[in-house]
Every structure is written in structure tokens, then in C-alpha cells.
UniProtKB/TrEMBL annotation:
Protein's job: This protein is one of the nuclear-coded polypeptide chains of cytochrome c oxidase, the terminal oxidase in mitochondrial electron transport.
Keyword Zinc: no
One of the record's GO cellular component terms: mitochondrial inner membrane
Positions of transmembrane segments: 20-37
The organism of origin for this protein: Carpinus fangiana
InterPro entries the record matches: COX5C
Keyword terms: Membrane, Mitochondrion, Mitochondrion inner membrane, Transmembrane, Transmembrane helix
Name of the molecule in the record: Cytochrome c oxidase subunit 5C
Length: 64
């Protein structure tokens, strides 16, 4: 029986371009989520001050 040949995967080092692309994609995704969170918080604050200015809400506790 002659030696049987099995195809083995050759191990290579990390691909710099692939690593940069993955890092860029993850960074943009995380940055987009962070930015959407801040836009949402800014919208809530703006809505609060608009209601406060219109007199629909008050920050002073009512005494009853």
C-alpha cells in the first residue's frame, strides 16, 4: 500500500486586508448604533424642553 494522500488545509497567517475590512465594518456598525442612541436621547431632551416651554409639564411638584 503506497502512502495515501490526504489533502490537509495549510495554515496561513492573518490576512491584513481582511482584518482591516472586518475591523472597519465592525467599527462603522458600532458607531452607527452609538450615533442612533445619541440622536434618540437628543430627541427626548428636545421634546421635554418643548413641553416644558409650552407649559404642558412642570418640574415643580404640585402641592395638594
Amino acid at each position: 500500500m503506497a502512502g495515501s494522500r490526504v489533502a490537509h488545509a495549510t495554515l496561513k497567517g492573518p490576512s491584513v486586508v481582511k482584518e482591516l475590512c472586518i475591523g472597519l465594518a465592525l467599527g462603522l456598525a458600532a458607531g452607527g448604533l452609538w450615533k442612533m442612541y445619541h440622536w434618540n436621547e437628543q430627541r427626548k431632551v428636545r421634546q421635554f424642553y418643548d413641553l416644558l416651554e409650552k407649559g404642558e409639564i412642570s418640574v415643580v411638584a404640585s402641592e395638594e
